[in-house]
Amino acid sequence: MVYRIHFTSEDLARTRVAPAPMPLSELNLAARLLQVRTRDPRLAAWRRRAAVPLPASARMALSLFPPLAPSPTFAAPARAGTLEELLDLVRATPRKEVEAQLAAVAEHHPVPAWARHLGDDMALREAFCEGLGHLHTHLLSPYWTRIADLFALDRTVRMQHFMHGGVERLLVRANPRWLRWRPPVLEVRMVHEVDLDLYLRGQGVMLVPSAFGSRSAVDPDQPQPAVTYPAGHDLPLVRLTALTEPGTASTLTALLGNTRARVLTAVAEHPGCTTKELAVFCGISASSASEHATVLRAAGLIQTARQLNTALHSPTGLGADLLAGGDRHSAGG
What letter does residue 144 receive in the DSSP assignment? Predict the structure, then answer.
């Protein structure tokens, strides 16, 4: 089934990519994934680490994020900020709004009995926020630096799409498997049997890259309607290692250093890229990208062809083998 989002010219002008990762949005998705079986290899190490008993407050919070049913928007605002800032938003949600959202959820899925008083019982609200904090510490905190790096790299790629093809290319390339742009409508494939229309009326949408997202989802109840998609879906090596066991540096990073490892990975993911493009993919200056490429070339890990005044970088067989070995180490294999 399909969720159809209708755009006007004003909506296209106001469509943007989220400026920073959104902790509670990611927590919503992570909590859902924790409760379902999946063979996604990139989640294997994360699942092993998460497979320990949770505090009672965390289990309570987890029950408000069922794996295959709606959850109330106030519990996972699509906002950037510190965890404490976002928990303050949850605490400050007006009673009527909490009750309305819980009632809407109850039309599709039973709401946990404890949650029915979240609107007017502030002590219960505080306990729920404490549980969200415990869940975040357990499921996200150890990985947050990597999640932020994946987000930043994905956003850089989306900005390239925007610069070379405007908002339409941004919408086309954000998640080709689950999003289809049929001007002036963005169609979002849905897992559940829903057939809905959203008329933006000048609001535009915010595209939200997600480390835990595996498809696309629409949240129309945010200040600006949000459409999530898998961060780094077109950067498979980076996405694969974003949720590997924290605290254990990959062989590749230990050998080359973080930035140079990123440069080699970017060359492998974008063979034939220019030095300028390499700088964009890695979030570094062009001069720094050139210096790292020179070292990698001298080590036999990349090769550089010249076309007029442009250097085009590609991995060598040795570089590809080193990347494959580093990824196996990161994945615990």
Answer: H
Task: Determine how many CB atoms are found less than 10 A away from the CB of residue 191.
Answer: 10
Number of domains in the chain: 3
Q: Hey, which bits of the chain come out as E strands?
A: 2-6, 16-17, 179-182, 185-189, 196-199, 206-210, 217-219, 226-230, 273-274, 302-307, 310-315
CA distance 7 to 13: 10
- What's the domain range around 54? 23-142
CA distance 33 to 42: 12
219 with 296, same domain? no
Could you tell me which of 211, 174, 178 has the C-alpha nearest to residue 21?
Answer: 211
Domain match, 6 and 29 both: no
Reported pTM: 0.72
Q: In angstroms, rounded to a whole number, what is the distance separating the alpha carbons of residues 175 and 231?
A: 9
pLDDT in tens, 41-54: 788 889 888 888 99
Same domain, 80 and 134: yes
